[in-house]
From TrEMBL, chains A, B:
This is Homoserine dehydrogenase. Its EC number is 1.1.1.3. It holds the Pfam family ACT. It is an enzyme of class 1 (oxidoreductase). The active site is at K197. The lineage of its organism: Bacteria, Pseudomonadati, Campylobacterota, Epsilonproteobacteria, Campylobacterales. It comes from Campylobacter corcagiensis. NADPH binds at K99. GO terms for molecular function: homoserine dehydrogenase activity; NADP binding. It comes from the Bacteria. NCBIfam families: PRK06349.1 (NF004976).
């Protein structure tokens, strides 16, 4: 099988090198040799540390007749989609790690791939075989819920904040120094990357359509040391979660930081690692853990897809159990969960009574309350509340009202609680 | 696809009922209906809670021509092997959860299954798709090491001992009361069950031959409250581990209780849950977590195998990468690891010096030492040692010498340390 690698960065170089280094077991397992024959790069002057021939002429490679499978690692949405579409129309097979392209074009790609194979294991969870688990390992189950830690950068930052009491900016700086965060980390820390991956998983489990713009996405940039203080005191861990679950006849999708019980298995997924819990009606909870990024780890998933193609394993691509349970997206306003509220106030008589009144008047019932011991220097004190399950719109209204209340300093801050 | 279920106990009943309850998604995913047409039981008088026809005439079912796949859930080794062999010879496909049969006859079964499909996902880790992960998800990797918590009964007992300071017998009693341990729990608590599963995994990863009798198997029955005390004090967790790893040109297989770092992801696998860490040369560590037993969970894996058969996914069964790296078993005497030693002694002058001399004379170097504070009533005191990596034979010799030393009470107790 002859393979062209579109985009020879860290992952592309690992794919080429592992196909050569592990050629023995790979051909034994695939039943045939899998040969990387060409790599496409933008800048030919940079050394990629690979021994395969490189070219900067993408179109000529897309036009070649001697390529069986194209491995798309260019990144970006539209240019990648154009390149992949072109070869799929010629009946060529494609393997990709490009979750952004899938987040916007997955169903169009599914149509184009009807007569060929399209592998995207590497698009979620790096080398963790989560797509295969969902499509094949759990194929007997109605998937009730997927809860994933899908972004290693955010998870590293939050783990640092929990373990070392670093504030967000110190933790981000450390992540950047270690190469775990990019110079512009927005995409990772604002939840976009996790949202793209969540759309891929929910399309398999529920056949959900929709783009990132259609789902709730919150980042981790506003998490403060006070939130960490509360989480530790109440035995929670703060994680950036990507959640897809069945809610009535709809699929509820959301990406946001969440307080989870410290004994939840996902609470143990630390540093840059990823972990995905899947709840099936027959199996119950199973969890998949591993490196969510990195050249060799991601290449492991890309090559597993290539080997599956040689084995002729044909599995449906997305929403493969529809029309049985293809679900529409739940409107964001209908989301109901538990909440944590941090309210900074002037420390004077009657404040707590006033706040709790506002809450009950807006049908929010308090589950727990903590007033952080205030040291003399501080002019203000911070109140922490957790609520029972309630409507997000009610919580937002309470935050609006409190923000306008004279003894409240700044807008209250909210984190969802996932139990 | 017409399925016969040989053995309609908890798992068999779940297979029949889930195939009917989830028939919609299962046919959508399989591309055809998967229909349980008959179940074989020993005792027809007992109600199995299934709606499929039952019979106690195994042979007549094995002789039927209208069965496409046989699901073997009879348990036992030879009778199951005879039944499965008979239908495989007729070119029928088989799905089994029977690890004992596989531990002794897996390669014979592989030969017989040449022209049909043979699924055994349910034989290890209950519903966790670990076999699929090893065969397909990690197919780009040289598997360097597999470390598994593969027996839920033992894990529940050890978790109880760690969490509640119960002694072994109290924890076992509780496990039995909750139905997590059988009236005769020997097979689970002595490591046999985990060893059978380990042989299945190592056959996939390394193509290893050999029976349970050929590998190191130790149970958890001698773990004492003092060992728990030490483990907590030194931030270890005690788990029954099943380990398969490459050691030079050999495969090192062993099942035994082990001290592992409390931050190891496997340390978080509590209660009856199973967890398997797999280390690949490309991927690094990935871990798979879920219920290792139970009717519906195990049925989830059985049915996933059935769906794979309808999809025509043909993957090699065992040692599928041999001859590239089929490994012979490492002799037990060649195992080298770190050790924990518990030595009960008379509390008098010079004892510690004498013991440490014996150790150094036998080329065992001490990594850490703890003397448990002795309360006045006690006549004896307990010394705890951990060693650097050394040969098991040297540790055994030291234990022999100490056992014969007058100030030492009872034979010293040893637990391996896995880091």
């Amino acid at each position: 099988m002859r393979v062209a690698i579109l985009g020879v960065g860290t992952v592309g170089a690992s794919v080429a090198n592992i196909l050569q280094k592990n050629a023995g077991i790979i051909s034994a397992r695939a039943g045939e040799k899998i040969e990387p024959v060409v790599g496409v790069v933008r800048d030919l002057s940079r050394d990629r540390g690979v021994s395969i021939p490189l070219t900067d002429d993408l179109q000529s490679v897309l036009d070649r007749d001697d390529i069986d499978v194209y491995v798309e690692l260019m990144g970006g949405v539209d240019s990648a989609f154009a390149a992949v579409s072109k070869v799929l129309k010629k009946g060529k097979s494609v393997v990709t790690a490009n979750k952004a392209m899938l987040a916007y074009h997955r169903y169009a790609l599914e149509k184009l791939a009807k007569d060929s194979s399209f592998g995207f294991e590497a698009s979620v969870g790096g080398g963790i075989p989560i797509i295969k688990a969902l499509k094949e390992g759990l194929s007997a189950n109605h998937i009730k819920k997927i809860v994933g830690i899908l972004n290693g950068t955010s998870n590293y930052i939050l783990t640092q904040m929990m373990d070392t009491n670093a504030d967000f900016h110190e933790a981000l700086k450390k992540a950047q120094d270690l190469g775990y965060a990019e110079a512009d980390p927005t995409f990772d820390i604002e939840g976009q990357d996790a949202a793209h991956k969540l759309l891929v998983l929910s399309s398999i489990a529920y056949g959900t359509h929709g783009n990132p713009e259609d789902i709730l996405i919150k980042g981790i940039t506003k998490i403060s040391s006070e939130d960490i203080f509360f989480a530790k005191d109440f035995e929670y861990v703060i994680k950036l979660l990507a959640i897809a679950k069945v809610n009535g006849d709809k699929a509820e999708l959301r990406v946001h930081p969440a307080l989870i019980d410290k004994d939840n298995i996902l609470a143990k997924v630390g540093g840059v690692m990823n972990g995905i819990s899947v709840f099936g009606d027959a199996l119950g909870e199973s969890m998949y853990y591993g490196p969510g990024a990195g050249g060799d780890a991601t290449a492991s998933a890309v090559i597993a897809d290539l080997i599956d193609i040689t084995r002729g394993n044909k599995n449906p691509m997305l929403g493969y159990n529809s029309p049985v349970n293809a679900l529409k997206l739940l409107p964001i306003s209908d989301i109901r969960t538990k909440y944590y509220l941090r309210v900074k106030v002037e420390d004077r008589v009657g404040v707590l009574a006033k706040i709790t009144n506002v809450m009950s008047e807006n049908s929010i019932s308090i589950d727990s309350f903590l007033q952080k011991p205030r040291n003399k220097e501080e002019k203000y004190t911070t109140l922490f509340f957790t609520t029972h399950t309630c409507k997000e719109s009610d919580v937002k209204r309470v935050m609006d009202i409190l923000e306008r209340t004279e003894f409240v300093v700044n807008r209250p801050f909210m984190i969802r609680i996932e139990s």
